[in-house]
Design a protein that fits this description.
about 230 residues; alpha/beta; 5-stranded parallel β-sheet; 5 strands; about 50% helix; disordered C terminus
């Protein structure tokens, strides 16, 4: 599965080794090596949560690139697009990503599509959730990654509705959930039984980032010398 453009662009912009510390933590490996685990990563604005999420997505996409028994789906929440990130939209995106990796469309999803396509209606939240469960159980493992939960939806109740559905999916299918957020007590409470990590900018990451930016700026300056 290809990484999303936003994720890939962030990974490409990094110097080699930046942010890799997360992949070596006990918490991440416990999350990855056991089914039905959740890992909640919180941090202050600017700590590098989205870049670390992109590293995780890239790592998982590479690790399971040829293993079609493992389903991977990811969401990058953005407050600028919050009106397009209602619970139904988020579940639909997860469903679409998991269906795309199957050799053929699961019968339940096909029936749901045909029914609503014929009636020119949209499936309900619960219908999407049930379809998502039916697809998830066809995989040996499902890994869901959600970045910036604090920017998800237009209200706390919508975010909680989405998370409740995701935890329901986890309980029924053994799905693993990786999520990041700014420090937020209400979100943290929903993950109180999950593995957790505090995201902070590591000294080596900062040095690598600054070295990379300096190199980039020098390259741009050098190129401009040859412009007519």
């Amino acid at each position: 599965m290809d990484c999303p453009t936003t994720a890939l662009s962030k990974v490409i912009s990094l110097r080699e080794g930046t942010g890799i510390w997360l992949l070596h933590t006990d918490e991440f490996n416990a999350w990855l090596n056991q089914k039905s685990k959740a890992l909640y990563c919180s941090g202050i604005p600017g700590a590098g949560k989205t870049i670390l999420t992109s590293i995780v997505v890239h790592h998982l996409c590479s690790k399971y690139q040829t293993d079609f028994s493992v389903g991977i789906a990811y969401l990058y929440c953005n407050f600028r697009q919050r009106h397009q990130q209602k619970p139904e939209d988020l579940l639909s995106s997860l469903l679409k990503q998991l269906v795309q990796k199957r050799a053929s469309m699961p019968e339940g999803v096909k029936t749901l599509y045909e029914c609503h396509n014929r009636e020119r209606t949209r499936p309900s939240f619960n219908e999407i959730l049930e379809a998502l469960k039916s697809v998830a159980i066809q995989y040996s493992r499902v890994l869901i990654i959600v970045d910036a939960l604090d920017e998800c939806g237009v209200s706390d109740s919508e975010r909680q509705k989405f998370l409740s559905a995701t935890f329901n999916l986890q309980g029924k299918t053994g799905t693993n959930i990786f999520a990041t957020s700014r420090v937020n007590d209400s979100i943290a409470k929903l993950f109180e039984v999950a593995l957790s990590l505090q995201i902070r900018a590591e000294d080596e990451d900062i040095k690598s980032y600054l070295d990379g930016r300096c190199h980039f700026c020098s390259l741009i300056f050098w190129i401009t010398l040859f412009e007519v």
